[in-house]
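Hi support team,

I'm opening this ticket because the web form for multi-chain structure prediction keeps timing out on my end. I have pasted the exact lines I submitted so you can reproduce it. The total is 225 residues across two entries, so I didn't expect it to be a heavy job. Is there a limit I'm missing, or should I split the entries? Thanks in advance, R.K.
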Amino acid sequence: DAGVTQSPTHLIKTRGQQVTLRCSPKSGHDTVSWYQQALGQGPQFIFQYYEEEERQRGNFPDRFSGHQFPNYSSELNVNALLLGDSALYLCASSRGSYNSPLHFGNGTRLTVT
Amino acid sequence: GIQVEQSPPDLILQEGANSTLRCNFSDSVNNLQWFHQNPWGQLINLFYIPSGTKQNGRLSATTVATERYSLLYISSSQTTDSGVYFCAVRMGSQGGSEKLVFGKGTKLTVNP
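Hello R.K., no limit was hit. The queue was backed up. Here is the completed structure from your submission:
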């Protein structure tokens, strides 16, 4: 039973570029959430997708956008990268209800130079 | 929004020692999870424990929802227990938030 998988594991981009990160949820899960974790901090909620729609969004600018596909996998896109976007990006999946636990992938470490 | 406070921020132990990590939260919750983040960044589920007590090997956790705190106990610590321990909560009110709110974590170092 595969857990949450993310790709790529590491990525280096230049300021102003665009990046796409990918996530496949744990088998049986239909909800995907994205978190950003800066160095030395706890993860911060970016947004959550359910039934291919954004269900809730955290305090992140419109440069951060996402998508969920019919097979429940998801993408996180960040446009016009800033140095401050350098972080570990974590994807989490869960079943649809409010009370189900989240399972996290190993993350994508993004470095913006 | 809901506030999550973890203590202590840093903890250094000798192998074999026991420890207790605390998580206080400011509002009622319907989801509380403890995670261990290893030095490679992997965020590993330890417990899903919105209330009550659970045990898994050398680890156990207790959440007292009415008093808005949770405790994580680590017994007979090992060097592989090193890392950052996060508590994360989700609000419990009807129509409540989808997001998990994380504390700042407790950095645990276990020395041989």
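A quick check on our side: Chain B has one domain: 4-111. Let us know if the file doesn't open in your viewer.
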